[in-house]
Amino acid sequence: MAENDNQKLRAALVAEVGEQIVNWNDGTLDDHSHDTWPLSLIRAHRGDLGTRPACVVSPASTEQVQAVLRLADREKVAVSPFGAGSGVCGGFLPDNGSIVLDMRRMNQLIDVDETSLTARVQSGMMGHLFEAALAERGYSMGHWPQSIELSTVGGWVSTRAAGQFSSRYGSIEDMLLGLEVVLAGGELVRISPSPRRSAGPDLRHLFLGSEGTLGVVTEATVRIFPAPESRRLSSFAFSDFESGLEAIRQIVRVGWRPPVLRLYDGHEAARHFGQWIEDDESMLLVLSEGPPAMAAAETEACREICLAMQGRETGEAAVEHWLEERNNVPSLAELIAKGFVVDTVEVTADWRHIGNLYQQVIEAVSGVESLLIVSGHSSHSYAQGTNIYFTFVAQPQDQKDAEATYLECWKRAMDATVRANGSISHHHGVGRLRKPWMRAEHGAGIEVMRSIKRALDPRGILNPGALLPEDE
Ligand SMILES: Cc1cc2nc3c(=O)[nH]c(=O)nc-3n(C[C@H](O)[C@H](O)[C@H](O)COP(=O)(O)OP(=O)(O)OC[C@H]3O[C@@H](n4cnc5c(N)ncnc54)[C@H](O)[C@@H]3O)c2cc1C
Predict the structure, then answer these.
(1) Stretches in the chain below the pLDDT threshold 70
(2) What range does the domain containing 355 cover?
(3) What is the CATH number of the domain that holds 339?
(4) Gap between the Cα atoms of 299 and 236, Å rounded
(5) Among 145, 206, 213, which Cα is nearest to 179's?
(6) Amino acid 274: pLDDT
(7) 10 Å Cβ neighbour count for 78?
(8) pLDDT per residue as tens digits for the range 52-85
(9) What is the DSSP string of 67-85?
(10) Residues with CB under 6 A from ligand 1
(11) Is 469 contained in some domain?
(12) Which phi and psi angles does 442 have, rounded to 5°?
């Protein structure tokens, strides 16, 4: 019966948009059945992921996206937008019998405005290809997520992503000026780019972080920067994590904005920078760039603050090492196949609460029986606070316990974050993973979000199951 429905849906889509862009072979369906959420990887390894879409449509134009959504809305079939599947929270986990919209064929850089410093780009362009095209013209967006080679511009917008150079250039919400979005019924919304406006609520923020539940992003206009003229590197060892955090706070509170300010706790410093530190010191990396006089002044100011905080200068090489290695991460799927339960948890808090939050999360996750490691670093800082990016690794004796162990680590980390006045996600988003803590994060705001969802997607076809917790 279900296969019958799938066949009818495929035939209707082929009639609507042509057979070239509708695919349902086994390999394509497998490649589009989940994202990089470790729990989906654990389930896929066990062979019980459970769901599979009916077909994958790869639109080449906004009109084709509109046609697919009109059909889906009419037939009340779920549609899950797919960027490149690098999301790590289960934002993409299509239902049985649903349509996947793979946006990667919409991958053109449409325009670079060198006078106004903006670039207009289709949402399915891969991050590194977009940066390379800008670099050819002497520009950069300044958005360098670790997944730049694994993710799309539309994915960045939809998850509220942040890159490794965010302390200077901002995160995606600071960079996004204009948007083109297709709503559930196929209507097109265009938000024209403007440096600023005071003309009612800012609709960009409806779609930023909406994880495919309110519309399909087809185009974005973003800020760009002239490629920096110079770069300065420095690093410092601190006897403890708290002193390093205090150095960062003092740097950013007076207005210095080095793009990279990364502080690793003792565990992570030993793991990544062992040759530059002693005992269980923490390690701070500082990278400044821009006009030479500005980069030099910023580097010197950061140095003075770090030395005043009893930091020990450890030179440029540690930052060079990080620059070389920063996007090399072990394959999660391979670690899971070896029996490890592993993930990262990025949360944020203001300066008053961040030190306690770090302690609380480390302590809470350390209580998991089969835990091997829990550690953290701060990588995105603001005058008001910073994030901590925790990593945990556990190894349950029995593979059957992998899922329960994974969920226990997350529950402990999230509960401790809420208790410590933190915010539950800094940049990976919610997906299916963080839904249980959305009420604690937003309170009655959840009802506002539900009303918006009902208004924009009355038949509930867009990415059902992601982001919003089920009715209590
Ligand atoms: C190794 C690794 C490192 C990472 N490092 C970072 C990092 O440094 N910073 C960071 O922020 N994140 C990071 N991530 C997470 C991930 O790369 C981001 O969440 C990224 O923004 C997802 O982009 P994507 O194109 O892969 O989207 P997908 O994973 O395909 O989709 C993510 C969500 O957005 C929706 N979506 C995708 N495209 C569209 C669209 N065009 N319109 C509407 N909805 C859409 C999907 O339905 C889904 O809900 C990392 C992930 C990995 C695996």
Answers:
(1) 1, 472
(2) 332-433
(3) 3.30.300.330
(4) 12
(5) 206
(6) 96
(7) 21
(8) 999 999 999 999 999 999 999 999 999 999 999 9
(9) HHHHHHHHHT--EEEESSS
(10) 35-36, 80-88, 91-92, 103, 123, 145-147, 150-152, 154-156, 158-159, 161-162, 211-212, 216-217, 329, 427-428, 463, 466
(11) no
(12) -115, -10
Whether 291 maps to a domain, the answer reads: yes
Ligand 1 centroid – CA 87 distance (Å): 4
CA distance 3 to 16: 20
49 and 128, same domain (yes or no)? no
pLDDT of residue 140: 98
- Given 275, 307, 325, the domain boundary residue is 325
In this predicted structure, what is the pLDDT of residue 49? 84
Answer with the one of 325, 341, 363 that is the final residue of a domain. Answer: 325
Q: Look at residue 411 in the predicted model and tell me its pLDDT.
A: 98
344 located within any domain:
yes
Distance (angstroms) between ligand 1 centre and the Cα of 312 equals 37
Question: For the whole model, what pTM was predicted?
Answer: 0.98
* Contact criterion met (CB below 8 Å) for 375 and 350: no
Tens of pLDDT along 347-374?
Answer: 999 999 999 999 999 999 999 999 999 9
Q: What is the CA radius of gyration of the chain?
A: 23
Query: Alpha carbon 269 to chain centroid distance?
Result: 23
Structure tokens at 169: 């250039």
Residues 90 and 139 in one domain: no
Residues 385 and 415 in one domain: yes
